[in-house]
Structure formats: structure tokens, C-alpha cells
Amino acid sequence: MKEAGNHTAGDDASSAVDLAPGAEFGIAHQISAFIEVLLVGVWLGSMIFFSFAVAPSAFAVLPTRELAGAMVTSTIGKVEVLGLVIGPLLILIQTASWRARSSSNVSKTFQVGFILVMISAAALSRFWISPQMVSLRAAMGGHIDDVSAGDPLRVQFNSLHQYSVALMSAAIIAGVLVLFLTIRSWRSSKRFLP
What we know:
It is a single chain. By secondary structure, the protein is mostly helical. It has one domain (about 25-185). The protein has helices at about 10-20, 25-60, 65-95, 105-140, 150-185. It is elongated and about 60 Å long.
């Protein structure tokens, strides 16, 4: 039994390790947290960059709206595929690390729900909106601006465009919430905090 005033250098080292930030938070959990935040960041960043940089710039810089539309269609296709790959990976990470997080089950459930919203938005865009917009553009001869605003094809195209914008907006909002809840779920772990 040790007396109150007697301790060795080894005791200091052991208490220093006990107090080190993340010392009890295993390397596997640290890697999992890093990968999860990276995936959410890449997916969310791609949607934000597409919405606020690529699409507006394409229509502002390219010489024709047809070229801009083709570029936007190609780029959004890549963002959709990214979401359809990253989304399920995030669900797997959530499932595998469910117990390692100290956030409430309600918070973790909301996080998974927001990821499902993002996946659904990507899937709806990929398999419903984008193909229909491409076929409508082809049916109008590729020159949408030459078609009258009251034409049924143009009305349907504009309606689908609004759905596309709404889906992307919902996915971005859900992504911001996922990022917040992800960081909060790992940071709120008592084992992770110093």
C-alpha cells in the first residue's frame, strides 16, 4: 500500500497517459471518425461546389446554354454517383460504430435518417429527374431556349429542374446536419475528450 506522499516516476507516466487526449479512444475509433468526417465532407462539399460554383459558372461562361446544360448534366451525374457510393458507406460506419458513440440513440437515429435523406435525394436525381430532363432536352431538339415557355415539354422540364434544385437543397441541409451530428457524436464521447 502506498502512502499519500510517496509516488514514483512510473506513477506520473501512467497518470499522464490516462489524461492524454484520446488515450482511451482507440486508434480504430479515431480512424473510423476521420473516415466518416472525410466522407461526409467530400459529399457535402461536392454538392455545395456544384450548386454554387459549377452550375452558375457553366451558364455564365460557356458560349451556349446547350453546352452549359451538357456540362451541368455531366457534373451532377458524378455528384449523384458519389452520393450513391458514400451514403451506404456512411450507413455501414454508423452501424459498426453505434456503441462507440456516447450520443443518444435518438441523435444517432436522426443522423442515419439524414444520411438516408441524402441517399434518397441522390437516387431520385440519378434515376428519375436527370434521365427525364435529358430525354426532354432531346425531345425539344436540344435548344430549350427556342421552345416557348408555355410548351408542355418546356413546362415539364422547368418543373423537373425545380425538383432537382429542391432535392439538392434538401440533401445539402441534411448533409450539414449529418456533419454536425457526426462531429458531435465523436467529440461528446467521454473517452475522446481531454
